Amino acid sequence: MRGWVVVVVFGVLGLISPTEAQIFDTPSLRGSSPFIPAAPRYAKWEGAYIGGQVGFAGTSTNFSTGAADLIANILRNTTVQSQFQPSQWARLPAQGVSSFNFGAFIGYNFQYEDAVVGVELNYNRANARMGASNTVARVVNTSDGYSNNVTVSGSGSLHLTDYATLRFRGGWANDTLMPYGFLGVAVGRATVTRSASVSISGIDADPACAPTCLPPYTFAQSQSDSRSGAFGLGWTAGTGIDWAFQSGVFVRGEFEYVAFPNFRGVAVGIAAVHAAAGVRF
């Protein structure tokens, strides 16, 4: 019986063709070609590029102390200002607005395998208008014996027209996609208008002062400051992704935040999303 089994096994093996027998080949045992991993795939991003973009931005402004220096200048060298600081009373509320923008960019990438670093100059044309105002009235008694009825008013408006950023980028080339992040400096241009007014009426703080009461007085003054084409300095940060869908042509989606901490007394923040297209040389 055992002899018949041996004969059948060798008979079956004899029926298998050389091609079919390759199924059972074990390369590591027979010394065939070793496994070679595929080369990493990433598009070439190195070189100069240029493009255009459109975006949607939410712009917020903090006019909080926008009129403070004007009120302080009106009340300079006064007892009311030195003892009660009316210049800090009329803090203006924050404002926000949404708007579309458009612009262009130019840059240069340096690439080492799948690591990409570069520098980019980015420009956006904006149209964001905001304004705020506030009025505060208080009665204060000063050390010179007067009861002072003080009213201070302040207002401010800002029209952001455009801004530019110089970005330093770092990205990762993954096939035809390149996610990236950036940090940089920003400069903006806007028309900033501020105004302030102060009115004070004073009488003797002692109701029983007669007949030696201090003489009553009134005071009223206004001041304004308007600057067209004023420049502000700030910073920018953000992230995005470029897609090279054809050789030398790419599209982009990104998020950017730009901050101007002190735009002539007004703090400005811009949160924007951009869609862009560009060509690489």
CATH topology label: Porin
Q: Give the strand line-up of the largest sheet.
A: 1-2-3-4-5-6-7-8
Cα-atom radius of gyration: 36 Å
Total beta strands: 8
| CATH architectural name | Beta Barrel
Helix vs. strand class: mainly beta
For the sheet with most strands, the description reads:
8 strands, antiparallel, barrel
**Head-to-tail CA distance between termini:** 80 Å
Account of the protein in words:
The protein has 281 residues and is mainly beta. It has a single domain, classed as Beta Barrel (Porin). 12% of the residues lie in helices and 63% in strands. A hairpin with a 4-residue loop joins β3 and β4. The N terminus is likely disordered.
Summarize the structure.
The protein has 281 residues and is mainly beta. The protein has five helices and eight strands, in the order H-H-H-E-H-H-E-E-E-E-E-E-E. The protein has an eight-stranded antiparallel β-barrel.
